[in-house]
Amino acid sequence: MNCDRCGADAVMHAAYSGAHLCESHFRESVERRVRRRVREDDLLPDDATPEDPERWVIGLSGGKDSVVLATILDETFAEDPRVEMVALSIHEGIEGYRDESLAACEELTADLEMRHEVVGYEDELGVRMDDVVEDDPENMAACAYCGVFRRDLLETYAEDLGADKLLTGHNLDDEAQTALMNFLEGDVAQMAKHFDASIGPFPDRRESEHFVPRAKPLRDVPEKEVALYCHLRDLPSHMAECPHASEAYRGEIQQLLLDMEERHPGVRHSIMAGYEELSGVLAGEYREDGDNSPDLSPCERCGSKTARNVCRKCELVAAIDTG
Ligand code: SF4
Ligand SMILES: [Zn+2]
Ligand SMILES: [Zn+2]
Question: In CATH, which of 3.40.50.620, 2.60.40.1180, 2.170.190.11, 3.90.230.10 is domain 46-322?
Answer without folding.
Answer: 3.40.50.620
